Amino acid sequence: MEHQKLRLKRHEERRLQGGHLWIYSNEVDTRQTPLKDFLPGEQAGIETHNGKFLGTAYVNPHSLICARLFSRDHQSLDRTLLMHRLEQALRLRNRLFDQPFYRLVYGESDLLPGLVVDRFGAHLSVQLNSAGMEVLKAEILDALTALLRPESILLRNDGSMRQLEGLPRLVETAYGTSPAEVELLENGVRMLAPLHGGQKTGWFYDQRPNRALLQRFVQDKRVLDVFSYVGSFAVQAAVFGAKAVVAVDASRFALELAEKNAGLNGVGKIFSGAQGDAFDVLKALRQDGEQFDVIVVDPPAFIKRKKDHQEGLRAYHRINELAMHLLVDDGLLLSASCSMHLQRDELLDVLRHGGGHLNRHVQILFEGMQGPDHPVHPAIPETRYLKAFLARVSKE
User: Fold this and answer.
1) CA distance 326 to 315
2) DSSP reduced 3-state for 115
3) Which one of 36, 165, 232, 270 has the lowest number of neighbouring Cβ atoms within 10 Å?
């Protein structure tokens, strides 16, 4: 199939030639190839300013990222190529995991930009985050059904990226009967994830290796899980041998499911939840003289846009310092950030500054990132978003 051409301005091909897949609207030579001539999701051949072919992309003329490359060849993103890419993604996950609970497709890193698929055994939770993937919805569903024979496919198309792409935000069952909750197994622990009413796809597989890290450090310890969601860190810490765990979250719905997850694993007696704003809850715990041996701080993205950087950075400083106040001497703090706009060294500086302000000695023991089912594309720094440090905090 012959595609319409999208031509770049002079020198704007360098990032693509370095391996990146995104094209911004200000990089397009709109005099030669006006963006208004393209329909959202339409596929196009990408050329340099002098007509050299770079690859094939799909286009959204109404988005800042106006095109996303999916092939360096003259190809169409159709059912055949979709099936090939899905099979590649599945082969990798089968090498990584012995049970079907993982992120099957991680967008650009799996050469399927704008597509996210989380697998919960026989059930799939899917996000179509771009116009290009929205246009291919039927082909994607067909390919997933043929490859995995799932019992259900839920479209969690309610994320903010859809709004940026000019797409409607909604949640709908696309195939079969999608349950409200689905059971998964992670690090040997049974957990329930809320598919319809939960955050994102219902679960955060990206923190799997960082949750596993706790197993070495929580035996007979008091553990505080801040921004707990459905108790992923707290419940696993309890199963790993903690003597008491406290989960903090603003959502009553999430904490009720966290309590249910604790009961599912026989650790309900050592689990307790604290509903409320995390900053307020931690202040109240300090006033009550509470202290913990291990604290996990895994907030939502405080910096969602570049313009929010300073305000968000202050929030990271505040919440980590509050956590340090609650640590016993020689306590452990697992501090994480999923904000793409927060740099690794900035999170490290948050811990350094907090220790200095409280006259505590901070030692970094481990550095974590997202799990291997969220593989990093080496040319796309945006695909490595999760930062995590396990720190020992002691009195000098």
Assistant:
1) 17
2) strand
3) 36
- Does pLDDT of 1 surpass 80? no
Spatial neighbors of 143 by CB under 8 A, at least 6 apart, are 79, 82, 83, 86
Which position among 338, 342, 350, 362 bears the catalytic label?
338
**pLDDT for 237 beyond 90:** yes
351 pLDDT band, cuts 50/70/90, is very high
Q: Is the pLDDT of residue 35 over 90?
A: yes
Smallest Cα–Cα separation from 47: which of 7, 3, 1?
7
pLDDT for 42 equals 97
When the pLDDT of each residue in the chain is averaged and rounded to a whole number, the result is 96
CATH class of the domain at 4-71? mainly beta
CA–CA dist 91, 101 (Å, integer): 14
170-176 β-sheet, strand order: 101-106, 115-120, 123-128, 152-157, 170-176
Query: Phi, psi at residue 212, to the nearest 5°?
Result: -65, -30
The predicted model gives 313-338 an average pLDDT of: 97
CATH number among 3.30.750.80, 3.10.20.600, 2.60.40.10, 3.40.50.300, domain 79-179: 3.30.750.80
Q: What is the largest CA-CA distance in the chain?
A: 70
66 catalytic, yes or no?
A: no
Write the CB contacts of 390 (distance below 8 Å, at least 6 apart in sequence).
213, 217, 332, 333, 334, 364, 365, 366, 367, 368
Tokens for 266, please give them. 């026989």
Fold agreement between 4-71 and 79-179? no
Amino acid making up residue 366: F
Tell me how crowded residue 361 is: count the other CB atoms within 10 A of its CB.
Answer: 14
Q: Is 3.40.50.300 the CATH classification of the domain at 182-395?
A: no
DSSP-assigned beta bridge partners for residue 172: 155
Helix (H, G, I), strand (E, B) or coil at 139: helix
